[in-house]
Amino acid sequence: MPESTPLNATVPVVRKDAFLSREMDGDLLLYDRESDAVHTLNSTAGFIYACCDGATSAEEIVRQVAERFGSTREAVREEVEATLSRLQALDSVAAVQPDPVLTRPRREFLATALKGAALLPFVAPTVETMFLQAANAQGPSDPPPPVDPPPTITSCTPDNADQGEYVVLDIRGTDFQDSPTVDLGSGITVVLVDYKRAKKILVSVLIDVSATTGTRDITVTNPDTQSDTLVSGFTVNALPPSAPTVISCTPDNGDLDDRFDVTIAGTNFTATPTVSYNYTKIRVRGVTYISSTTLVVDTKIRSDAVPGSYNVTVTNPDTSSGTLLNGFTVNGPSTPTVTLCSPNNANKNTTLNVTLTGTDFEATPTVDFGAKIIINSVTYISSTTLTVNIKVRKNAASGSRDITVTNPDSGSATLLNGFTVN
Fold first, then answer.
1. Which DSSP category does 242 fall into?
2. In CATH, which of 3.40.50.1000, 1.25.40.80, 3.40.50.720, 2.60.40.10 is domain 337-421?
């Protein structure tokens, strides 16, 4: 190669016709037909080379580079001059007529071959050379670029599922190839990928019960290794807790105007549940959580409650609930019986104890022997026995009297002619 003469800063620089140029991936390739060499110029060096149009001096090129990349002449001068020297050393620029392929107007060249370069900050220009004969002897270092376009993912339906769930995902997009692979991260097993067409694949997945909850990226990879990822395209939801069940109540019944504890047995109870008997006149005064299978409910039955069977419902804080149908019964007024009074007679102006025998007596009942017989006290012995202290007044009418026992729930019974005033 002949020795190069240093370029004058004021003399226009012209591209030489021995070179052919092509733009590829943002770089400019110069092919030297004489030496069978390819020179690769990055975007900055390519811009400098494009400015060598036979009308622009080296100093003007410095100004244009500074303007193009938003810098100052002093900042880019050394790099520009070094690049021009390198291009001259490659015998690619000189004061000769340029090749027709390269002599498009500079404005047109910059608007097409180097479109987008102005969007980048100034990058030091580089010029790399490869001799094709030597490169061909070594064989290609990289595989050829893929021919088909890469896939794209636009949507996934459904876009969420619970832990432990098996679901079929309808993934839509473009350029899917037959037999792609799909990945949604750890804890999600892809059971089957059913290729439908270039814009649709159906993916059957099994989500492990312990899979990490939250969003997942979906990646589809074609057999040619090209892939695309839909960021946060799928969400794993926490497994919803099981709803409670109510198995039994102990006791499962209660009397009017009574207050007592009811133990509820079941499953999947959680702390701070609510309990309802589905009837406003059975009031829950408090709920004590014992375990996931046991609750104790402070229960009050109003005196005006309607006897009958009612549902028992337990509701967890997450609003899941379970109901035992007809699980609790409000008893109606009990119906006692009076079968015997002993003694069954007394003289006037006499005070004595009598024993009443019968069934279904309740605590604190009332007893009546008729006019002029005063009831001093009633002692509840058992559901079958009461002791009644009475006073037969001196003006009480002689003859037989009926004896009536009334329980607190208003249930009552009468022993006709059960007592006689002598």
1. P
2. 2.60.40.10
Q: What is the mean pLDDT of residues 149-153?
A: 96
Architecture of the domain defined by 152-237: Sandwich (2.60)
Helices 58-68, 43-51: axis angle to 10 degrees equals: 140
**CA quadruple 409, 415, 416, 421: dihedral positive or negative?**
negative
pLDDT number for residue 54: 80
Nearest-CA neighbor of 64 among 48, 53, 49, 46? 48
CB 371 within 8 A of CB 390: no
Q: Is residue 323 left, alpha or beta, with left meaning phi > 0 and alpha meaning psi from -120 to 50?
A: beta
Q: In what order do the strands lie in the sheet with 412-421?
A: 345-346, 412-421, 399-406, 366-368
Coil/strand/helix, residue 191: strand
Q: Which amino acid is residue 250, in one-letter code?
A: T
pLDDT value at residue 400: 95
Amino acid (1-letter code) at residue 310: Y
* Helix/strand number for the chain, H first, E second: 5, 31
Tens of pLDDT, residue by residue over 224-278, are: 999 999 999 999 999 878 899 999 999 999 988 899 999 999 999 999 999 999 9
Each domain of the chain, given as residue ranges in start order, spans 12-138, 152-237, 245-330, 337-421
Residues contacting residue 356 through CB under 8 Å, at least 6 positions apart = 338, 340, 341, 367, 385, 386, 387, 388, 403, 405, 415
- Alpha-carbon distance of 125 to 32, in angstroms, equals 19
Which are the contacts of 109, defined by CB distance < 8 A and separation ≥ 6?
50
The CA radius of gyration of the chain, in Å to the nearest whole number, is 51
Distance CA 85, CA 300 (A): 103
Starting at the earlier edge strand, list the strands of the sheet with 12-15: 53-57, 12-15, 93-94
Whether 152-237 and 337-421 share one fold: the answer is yes
What is the reported pLDDT for 50?
85
Q: Is the pTM of this model over 0.70?
A: no
What six digits make up the tokens of 271?
A: 């702390």
What is the SS3 assignment for 379?
Answer: strand
In the predicted model, what is the mean pLDDT of residues 354-358? 97
From CA 168, how far away is CA 193, in angstroms rounded? 9
Superfamily (CATH) of domain 245-330:
Immunoglobulins (2.60.40.10)
